[in-house]
C-alpha cells in the first residue's frame, strides 16, 4: 500500500507532466501567466468543450448550476445566464464565499460582466451557507475545471482541494447528494489513461467534456463525508469564512 507521501509525490508528478502539455494549448492568465498551481486555465478548443456540455441532458435539465470560478468556465457561466439558469459560484479560493447569479435579477447587458470573477461580486448576491440552506433549492448540477483527470473521473486539481471543499460544504447543508451529477471541462491533453486512486473526500465526476470527446464515467465515487475537520488544512480553515461558518453550524 502506498504511503501518503508516495501518493502526494505521484499526484505532483502527474500534474507536472500534464501541465507541460497544457502550456502548449493554454490561455495565459492576466495575473498568474502559466502558473497552473494558481488557476485552472482556459484552453484552445474550450468553446467546443462547453458546447458539448450544454448539448447534454445534465445541463438541459438543470435550473440551478454550481460552476467553479475557473477560467475555462467563463463562457459557460455566460451561456447559463443567457439560458435563464441560476448560477451559484464561489470567488477565487472561496475566500469571499458563495455568490448567486440570478438572470431574472440581472440586466441582460450585464450578463457578460456578471460571468467574470470581478463582475460577479458587483452584480451578484453574496450568500452565506445558512442562506443557501434556507433560501435555495437543491443544486441540479456541479461543474468544474481541473488540472488532470482520468477516464474514471478521478480529478487532480491545483492541489488545494477547493472543489472538494465546495462539494463537502454543499453536501453537509443538504443542497447536493450522491445523485447530483458532476462534470469536468478539460482539454484532451489533461485526460489520463492511468489509474488514479481517489481519497475518501475526492469528488469523482460523472462526465468529462473535452473539445473532441464526451467521456461518461460508470458509477463515480461521490463523497458523503462532508468536511473532515481533522484532515482540513489549517490555513484553509483560517482563510475561508464559509468553512468557519460550517464549523460553527455544527453540521
UniProtKB/TrEMBL annotation:
Keywords: Ligase. Its EC number is 6.3.3.2. It comes from Rhizobium aquaticum. The keyword Ligase applies. One of its GO terms (molecular function) is 5-formyltetrahydrofolate cyclo-ligase activity. This is 5-formyltetrahydrofolate cyclo-ligase. InterPro entries: FTHF_cligase, FTHF_cligase-like_sf, NagB/RpiA_transferase-like. It comes from the Bacteria.
Amino acid at each position: 500500500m502506498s504511503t501518503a507521501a508516495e501518493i502526494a509525490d505521484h499526484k505532483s508528478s502527474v500534474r507536472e507532466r500534464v501541465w507541460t502539455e497544457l502550456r502548449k494549448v493554454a490561455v495565459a492568465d492576466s495575473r498568474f501567466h502559466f502558473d497552473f498551481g494558481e488557476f485552472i486555465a482556459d484552453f484552445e478548443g474550450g468553446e467546443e468543450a462547453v458546447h458539448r456540455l450544454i448539448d447534454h441532458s445534465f445541463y438541459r435539465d438543470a435550473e440551478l448550476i454550481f460552476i467553479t470560478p475557473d477560467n475555462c468556465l467563463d463562457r459557460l457561466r455566460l451561456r447559463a445566464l443567457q439560458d435563464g439558469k441560476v448560477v451559484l459560484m464561489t470567488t477565487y479560493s472561496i475566500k469571499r464565499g458563495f455568490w448567486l447569479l440570478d438572470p431574472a435579477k440581472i440586466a441582460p447587458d450585464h450578463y457578460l460582466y456578471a460571468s467574470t470573477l470581478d463582475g460577479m461580486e458587483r452584480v451578484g448576491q453574496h450568500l452565506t451557507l445558512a442562506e443557501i440552506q434556507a433560501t435555495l433549492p437543491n443544486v441540479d448540477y456541479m461543474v468544474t475545471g481541473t488540472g488532470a483527470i482520468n477516464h474514471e473521473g478521478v480529478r487532480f486539481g491545483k492541489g488545494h482541494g477547493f472543489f472538494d471543499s465546495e462539494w463537502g460544504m454543499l453536501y453537509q447543508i443538504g443542497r447536493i447528494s450522491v445523485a447530483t451529477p458532476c462534470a469536468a471541462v478539460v482539454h484532451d491533453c489533461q485526460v489520463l489513461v492511468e489509474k488514479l486512486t481517489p481519497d475518501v473526500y475526492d469528488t469523482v465526476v460523472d462526465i468529462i467534456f473535452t473539445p473532441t470527446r464526451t467521456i461518461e464515467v460508470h458509477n463515480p465515487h461521490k463523497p458523503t463525508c462532508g468536511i473532515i475537520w481533522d484532515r482540513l488544512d489549517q490555513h484553509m480553515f483560517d482563510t475561508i469564512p464559509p468553512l468557519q461558518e460550517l464549523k460553527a453550524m455544527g453540521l
